[in-house]
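User: These chains co-purify. Model them together.
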Amino acid sequence: MKIVSWNVNSVRARIENILDYIKEANPDILLFQEIKTQDENFPYDIFKKYNYDSYVFGQKSYNGVAIVSKIKIKNINKNLIKDNLKQSRIITGEVKFKNKKIELINIYVPNGNPVDTEKYEYKKNWLTSFIRNIKKRLSENSNLLIAGDYNIIPEEIDVYDFKKYENDALGKLEIRKKYRELLNLGFKDVYRFINKKKQEYTFWDYFSGSWQKNYGMRIDHFLLSNNLIENISSININKKPRSKIKPSDHTPIELEIR
DNA sequence: ATGGCTGAGCTACTCAGA
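Assistant: Joint model of the two components:
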């Protein structure tokens, strides 16, 4: 089973690129972030033509997450955590895989910049609330998959120039500690688990030729609960969509489980 | 180098992203 996580930066502006990708990669499940549209304007019919059902937690202009799947998803939940600002940042659902019931958790973590504002506090509070809830979920189901745009640079190797980001909301130690706290509940960062030293990125800024210079960062992650580690077949950052005309600033990360 | 570029909503410009 092939599962993809991709911050598409507007599902409607990106639809042609997304369809090109789907035809080539043929994933079973897509976890989208930053769809930037309300539920009623989501392109359900277009995905349906390619045999995908869409489960959407949208928002006007900003944020928004969706699960787009060829496989039946049950128990869709859009209220896993309490969000004071009522932003659409998390959608979960259950999928049967072999003898396991896997809970898919698709997240778009707040950016948190600038750090001396309430935006940073919102990110910290969001993560604290998220970790508390994941701990509870884990006690009920040991098969969890958390994927999405975490807006966290886990380690120095995960960005082209760490010094530029050590005081940024994506790289601050306080935030990276939250990520470690999450891992310590019983998860592996699948990319780093498989690739111990490799330096690859999932995001490149639109500004000043960041893509051409490979000034990127690894902020989109697949976390698998330890119970599912034996099912990993492969993990891949697919850079092709970032190289296209009118790309998202993020590129898809692909997980295959067996 | 708080710049650079892109999308939504809207129709001039702000807000947000990372």
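The radius of gyration of chain A is 17 Å.
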